DNA sequence: AAGATTTGGTGCGTTTTCGAACGGTTTACA
DNA sequence: TGTAAACCGTTCGAAAACGCACCAAATCTT
């Protein structure tokens, strides 16, 4: 197994030499829909480097069951920020939103490797910085964007992290991610569809016009993606690729 | 200058030995109201360990001037997460919201010290983890709390970081922090005052009943504070102190 | 002391989103 | 193939927050 063999962009970007400290510890792993990768308050077992599929970090209220999405992770990064930062558990829930597969490494192994290889550590910290920026902009989005804009933002972010133009997800699901009403998602979806930006079928949304979605999302989309390119050296946003 | 001489809680909590690597590089520094400690997109010059006063990290939209507060930092921590994570600049704005004073260290010095002393680095990373949790819960607050609840949450967080029970701030200021209308703050303030939780005078809010504010803030307050205690070993929330 | 400025209080109508509910359609599976 | 479940579309009134605008009171300036 070598670095070129993985489809994880972060591993590619750090180069074969840096990645080589991790490779022996990887095991391939399916990411099944809904699978919890980290459970709030419990020790983190593995860090996952997705190669396909999308995972999200879900912020939970202590009580009352309120929740919103704090960030998305796909093949551009890894889960387990907490471990990279030296912790062993986090108050958030991390779960698979779009199925795929990953390479994973045991948390204790990752700690050992990081401890020995500070060059590698600093690469992983760079991604932790990106997640922090992403979460900060999620806060901005929740505070200032309208439902329709939040939806456009989420679709763009998700689109960046998958291959196809089609997302398998329900309105119910989106409503939880965006922290809004299910019926609200239905309406916003219609608006976007009416403008020809997406096409929605039952349990499925197809991205038709990224530019248009960016126009709708406005300033809600872009900063974390720009920072990714600056820090990692690979374009994050789809239209910036080849 | 030794660690006991500082009023910064993080420096106290890490112990004199760990802090000793930083102390020679510190210079005292006033934190004047409105002073920018980090400017978006520009190299960070100093990391600040506040001893009095409160600083906030402000998340900016690329255009349109929208902004919200991503997190608060007082004497329980330090600014310059980005530097601790190995970066040199961030897209956020960090500025003084409540005047006070701090010890500061040049960013490049901090980088050197961290590079040499990994035990110290891991302490500082621990606080980076806390800021990340705080921002995540800010996102939750913006998404799910009502104005009045957001206000209660903000007052509690600020109260934790100062000595007195009195805050010098205007409705206008709060409206920007919370990402809401100025008139909305006025109304919410009246509600809280009507319940006897605070007392508001021109440009000034006095905290009367913390318990009551916690009841209003509900699940919007608490998680980052609990985590602080778990990770740093000192109580963050006021009512948990002696 | 007079005037300018900042800050707070209030009252519109409007927009956005909510909560709850119902019914129809598609899909899954027994 | 039929029945149950999941999903979507739509409706209703209500709540929350908005933008805007105006005035009063407190404070600062000179």
Architecture overview:
The structure is a homodimer of 242-residue chains. In chain A, 43% of the residues lie in helices and 22% in strands. Chain A contains 9 helices and 8 strands. In chain A, β3 and β4 (67-73) form a beta hairpin. In chain A, α3 crosses α4 (118-144), α4 runs antiparallel to α9 and α5 (147-160) crosses α7 (182-194). The first copy, chain A, starts with 8 loop residues before the first helix and ends in a 10-residue tail after the last helix. The model of chain A has no long low-confidence stretch (mean pLDDT 95). The interface between A and B is large, with 46 and 46 residues. The structure holds a DNA duplex (30 and 30 nucleotides).
List the helices and strands and how they pair.
The structure is a homodimer of 242-residue chains.
Chain A: H1 9-19, E1 27-31, E2 36-38, E3 46-60, E4 67-73, H2 81-84, E5 93-106, H3 107-116, H4 118-144, H5 147-160, E6 166-167, H6 171-178, H7 182-194, E7 198-201, E8 204-207, H8 210-217, H9 223-232
Antiparallel strand pairs in A: 1-5, 2-5, 3-4, 3-5, 6-8, 7-8
Helix pairs in contact in A: 1-4, 3-4, 4-9, 5-7, 5-8, 6-7
The structure holds a DNA duplex (30 and 30 nucleotides).
Compact description:
The structure is a homodimer of 242-residue chains. The first copy, chain A, is an alpha+beta fold and 242 residues long. The first copy, chain A, is 43% helix and 22% strand.
Structure characteristics:
Arc Repressor Mutant, subunit A, transcription (chains A, B), WH_DNA-bd_sf (chains A, B), alpha+beta, Jelly Rolls, DNA-binding (chains A, B), DNA binding (chains A, B), 242 residues, transcription regulation (chains A, B), five-stranded antiparallel β-sheet, homodimer, 43% helix, 2 domains, three-stranded antiparallel β-sheet
